[in-house]
Amino acid sequence: MSAAAVPVPAVLDIAGTPGIPFGRLFGVELRKSVDTRAGRWLIGITIAAVLVAETIFLIVSAVKNLDSSYGDFVAGAAFVSSFLLPILGIMLVSSEWSQRTAMTTFTLEPRRMRVVMAKMLAGVAMTAFVIAFALVIGLLGNLLFAAIQGQSPAWTFGWTGFTGFLVTQTFAMVGGFALACLLLNTPAAIVVYVVYKYVLPGLIALGSLMTWFSHLAPWIDFQAAQNELYDMPLTSAQWWHLVVSGLIWLALPLLIGLWRIRRAEVK
Amino acid sequence: MIKVEGLTRAYGSFIAVDDITFECKPGTVTGFLGPNGAGKTTTMRVMVGLTPPTHGDVTIGGLHYKDIPNPGRHVGVLLDASAQHAGRTGREVLEIGARTMGLPGTRVDEMLDLVSLDARESTRRVRNYSLGMRQRLGIAHALLGEPTVLILDEPANGLDPAGIRWMRGLLQGYADQGGTVFLSSHLLHEVEQIADEMILIGNGRIVARGTRDELLRDATGGVSTTLVTALDNHQLAEALTDKGIVVHPAGEGLRVTAEPVDVGRVAAERQIVLTDLRAGHEGGLEDLFLELTAETQRDVLPNEVTANEVTASEATASEVRA
Fold first, then answer.
1. Domain extents for chain B?
2. Is B61 on the interface with A (CB under 8 A)?
3. Distance from A115 to chain B by nearest Cα, in Å?
4. Do B62 and A11 touch (CB under 8 A)?
5. What would the pLDDT profile of A124-182 be if each residue is shown by its tens digit?
6. Does any CB of chain A come closer than 8 Å to the CB of residue B9?
7. pLDDT tens, B155-171?
8. In this prediction, does ipTM exceed 0.90?
9. Does B2-209 carry CATH code 3.40.50.300?
10. Which secondary structure element, helix H or strand E, spans residue A122, and what is its range?
């Protein structure tokens, strides 16, 4: 039995411990996305897939004597990596729940929304990394192509398309992120994302055979609305389609998901 | 330091924690005892803000947990040693904690050292850890930020006997330096040797609380008993009965309704050689614990055995007849 020899005041001295700065949370979340085997696999597969796609594109371009330029090589690399960005967004959130690390995370930082924001920013940073990787690989591909063809490299680069690509890829990552917040479950979030990405467009196209639905469709088809971003500038109607469908598919799941995380009992 | 006031947590119509109030003081170890599902974990989860309370309030050092800046530096928490990413190495788990709290990387090595996880073990993934190793890792994580308050749910779970002793010493030392320790267990003997105060919970309600001695006094109804064995038990029994002390045979010796000192005095007066003399209420706490939490025990106890001095064989026989 220990007798309290020195009387200790029953209050916490919090003067010496400022709150955790956001930058630190961001750094930790970034680290957490790559320090597990699952995280490394995801990054590794992304890099490998980009390299494979780029090699194929290079071979086809050389054999068929295509008029490929830098922009084409970048687009090829980025198109492939974009499939994995939503998965990344999903894993950032849902792994905390499936592995139950949310208990530790939210005990060290009880202001849960800051953690979630740090995670989302980590997702954006990873998206930026993937796009930068695509730029570099595209550069290498283009140089190799020029060397094979024995001509000087073509540096044509569609900046409009690239901006559209940047935005849509970030949306894709955040879309996965939002679904994960909403469902807090990795398989469920991935399945719903796949349905959204690959099944829903077909359903919308089918529904659009009905006239009344074909008027409604642009307002709810987020993917179609995003495609317009590759052909800037947008008309005001196209902007509104993007905003409204984005509210439905991005903002709404995210808001409900954040509300859920905020209130959830973390087990 | 930890103040729980009128805490209730309900899940629909099920009340996991039912209006409990208690306090843990600095420099002490408080044991939180109860059978599985009594509400221990729920209470601890509310303490650290993982579960919102239905009613009532918990403060640590006068603050709600969510208002403590960088709480890992003040409150060390271990709720579930298995709740770690299976794909992370033990070292990485601590590294993440240390970075979040803004601690130097050397702290990770110190903690690994403290809980005796060697360099090779620390680079293995948590998936491959035994429960005992996870528990050590969890304790290391809880201690990372040099907190003044520790909240540990079943910290001895999965530790080997040496590990349990080690942890006991660790927590004791921690309290001696002014720390506040609150730990739960469903095993009485894990807690009774270290806890300055024990809180017994059953069915979400506090059923008893106090120091070991206070609880024991309650357990025996304020009547002390002594177990004594003499070279000549018969002679001792007579001597004690002469003094008006009640004596029953018990095992090799006698169970006497008196303090050990009185029994010893009688033996000395009559020059009776004693081979064993001790307070007769070990098992008393265990009985109290089982009795108080009987409603929430999952297993039906042959309660006659603990209450009376019925031998095991008789109890079995009566059960068979019944």
1. 2-209, 225-279
2. yes
3. 11
4. yes
5. 999 999 888 888 988 888 888 888 888 888 887 777 778 888 888 899 999 999 999 99
6. no
7. 998 899 899 999 999 99
8. no
9. yes
10. helix A112-149
